[in-house]
Amino acid sequence: MEYVFVYGTLRRGLWNNRLLKNSKFIGKGKTKEKYAMYADIIPYVVEDEKVSHIVGEVYEVDEETLERIDALEGHPYHYKRKKVPIILENGEEIEAWLYFYPEPYGTLVKSGDYKDYYEG
């Protein structure tokens, strides 16, 4: 089993969360390090810009689910996944896969929370 950190359309209440229906929800959290989130309908997190902690959710996924998410994200050709430290709401730190985009695209989401983009 692996942990995956989702910050966009895979989060609860959004359209791609169905891919995680058989996965265990671990909790809400944020990245330990700062990155930059951009959005243009969907979000893009850029590793080499330090703007804010990225807000999201952690799931425990099996290999089949990780492969489905890789297909959705176009890994490794579109987004690239990398393990990063995540701080859960309870303060626990874990390592989880996060999908990075190679360059800024769209509008900067200064808060690092995709909900601020699509609800705002």
Summary keywords:
120 residues; single chain; Hypothetical upf0131 protein ytfp; mainly beta
Question: What do these coordinates show?
Answer:
It is a single chain. This protein has two helices and seven strands, in the order E-E-E-E-H-E-E-E-H. The chain has about 120 residues and is mainly beta. The longest helix has 11 residues, at about 65-75. The model has no long low-confidence stretch (mean pLDDT about 95).
Spans with pLDDT under 50 lasting ≥5 residues?
none
Stated plainly, the CATH topology is called Hypothetical upf0131 protein ytfp
One letter per element, helices H and strands E, the order comes to EEEEHEEEH
Q: What's the total number of strands?
A: 7
Overall SS class: mainly beta
Distance between the termini: 35 Å
Q: Could you describe the largest sheet, including whether it forms a barrel? A: 7 strands, antiparallel
Shape: globular
Q: Please indicate the percent range of residues in DSSP E strands (runs of 2 or more).
A: over 45%
CATH architecture: Roll
The CATH class, by name, is: Alpha Beta
How many whole angstroms does the radius of gyration measure?
13 Å
Domain Gamma-glutamylcyclotransferase AIG2-like: 4-115
Protein name: AIG2 family protein
Family: Belongs to the gamma-glutamylcyclotransferase family.
GO cellular component, one term: cytosol
Would you summarize the structure shown here?
By secondary structure, the protein is mainly β.
Present the secondary structure layout:
Blueprint (H helix, E strand, L loop, with lengths): L1 E5 L17 E17 L1 E5 L5 E10 L1 H11 L6 E9 L4 E8 L6 E2 L5 H5 L2
Antiparallel strand pairs: 1-4, 2-3, 2-4, 2-5, 2-7, 5-6
Family: Belongs to the gamma-glutamylcyclotransferase family.
Protein name: AIG2 family protein
Pfam family, one: GGACT
